[in-house]
Amino acid sequence: MKTKSNLYRKEKIYGLLYVTPPVLGFLLFTLFPVAYSFYGSFTDWDGLGQMDFIGLSNFKDLFTDELFLKASFNTIFMMIGIPIGIVLALLIALGLNRGIPGTTTFRVIYYVPVISSLAAISIMWSWAFNGDYGLVNQFLELFGIKGPNWLMNKHTVKPALIMMTVWKGLGYTMLLYLAALQSVPRSYYEAAELDGANGFAAFRHITWPMVKPVTFFIVVTNIIGGSQIFTEINIMTSTGGPEYSSASVVFYIWQKAFNNLQMGYASSMAVVLGIFIFMVTLIQFKMNEKSSLDI
Amino acid sequence: MSHSTRIKLTNTIIFIILAIGAVFMIAPLLWMLSTSIKQKLDVFALPPVWIPSHPQWGKYLEIWEAGPLLSGIQNSVIIAVSVTVVGTFSSSLAAFSFAKLRFPGKNQIFLMLLSAMMIPYPAVMIPQFMMFSKIGWIDTLLPLIVPGLFGNIIMIFFLRQYLISVPNEIIEAAKIDGSSYFRLFSAITFPLIKPAVAAQLILWFMGIWNDYLAPIIYLNSPEKMTLQLVIANFNATYAIQTDYPLIMAASVIALLPVLIIFLVFQKQIIESVAISGVKG
Q1: What family classification does the UniProt entry report for this protein (chain A) (predicted)?
Q2: pTM above 0.90, yes or no
Q3: Please, which residues 178-237 of chain B have a Cβ atom closer than 8 Å to chain A?
Q4: Fewest CB within a 10 Å sphere: which of A127, B14, B82, B172?
Q5: For A31-80, what is each residue's pLDDT tens digit?
Q6: How distant is the Cα of B193 from the closest Cα of chain A, in angstroms?
């Protein structure tokens, strides 16, 4: 009896010891900064010294700040790429799930943009979107279409960025769908076939409901990722695009904090963004509660 | 038409569509490669030249002189290797503890760590920046290294889930035999989860290698910059001078390491991504 309780005491100590690094990391690099961000958002912090409490003033300014509203609108607008990507990725995954030759090669080719450096990809695409010599316009010319100077035009800069983000993320979404499709029992389709269901009915009543949790996961993670879009904007449109038409929220936060040293104001934006993402994630956790986490 | 010929026909059509799609996916990258070995005249040729008549590999020599590319690679390697090696150790040890040891408050602590996954980097970057600037770490690699050493929540979460499926009996038996806890981890658990650890480590490495936002905040001097910042600066400088072959050559260099890692470990990476996504 004595050895057993001794064993447990030791286990307690080692158990706690082994989780100390991530707990410490969490306190130092997440919890403390979050609390500080929150506090900072109520001050006129310039990043040098003085932090005067100014109440909700930053937040009030935020909602009349034309640039912030524009950046928020742009960020949300660019999420149009999410449904486009989902439809394309599901179609590709359905195709690849039929066991046609070259499946592995296709999987790799579609996935390569995902692992590629976003900075390098952004540079490549800004060249591809060049009005005179860009790959995109040269392609359009094959159909007799004279393409615009994509990144220099306030109407085309967002579609251009959407095109690129869809291209970049397609492989990831495709992969998740492929994994989900492979876990659908074949017997379901066999039963449907016996009942005389055609391909589309089988898709509607079996495939789509079965991949629904993955679709949900993709939507949520894409919203979280999309709300933090920065690198593409910073490299492809270093000023935030014509008339600030491609600036994102994080781009604006970054400008305010590190170029204008308006740390307090930038913090209030970061808090708004943080709350938005927190809520989106919370919905995901809630929806997933039954199916996955067994804590 | 019989059933099997109809399936064959459908599959052929799908194959063709997927192949066209694949061309669209890979064409921009091939174009990047092709531009990097083009002569000035070919760069602006209409219609585009895909295979230059006289490939010029000279830009791949020139880029090493044109900017701090070598130090960029060095800095990226230093950050990515130190973070992933030490961070993977602390993450897998913590995952082992969460999955296999009993201690008070275990689930609460785990949930607390999980909550960190909900907090995006932009929400903490300003105070983190102020913190590191107070201790004089701005324009050093330390802000990019130190936080990672404490472990990665996603990796802990993933490895914990993986470990739960490892039977407890082996571990209980070793405990009774009086094996130390660290030996339990290093000799028994770790070898079992090695493939999962490897896949997560590679994904993490790629994430750090490709990171842009954190480095751009902390690093100012050219010789301190990571590879991604160096090539972004190439772009800013040479795009105006329209030396696209040079920029594309630098971009190819930035892509190459992760591309090679991916092609080598393709199977593990794809499996790991698929599992983590489907389990959500």
Answers
A1: Belongs to the binding-protein-dependent transport system permease family.
A2: yes
A3: 181-182, 185, 206, 209-210, 212-213, 216-217, 228-229, 231-232, 234-236
A4: B172
A5: 999 999 999 999 998 877 788 899 999 999 999 999 999 999 999 999 99
A6: 17
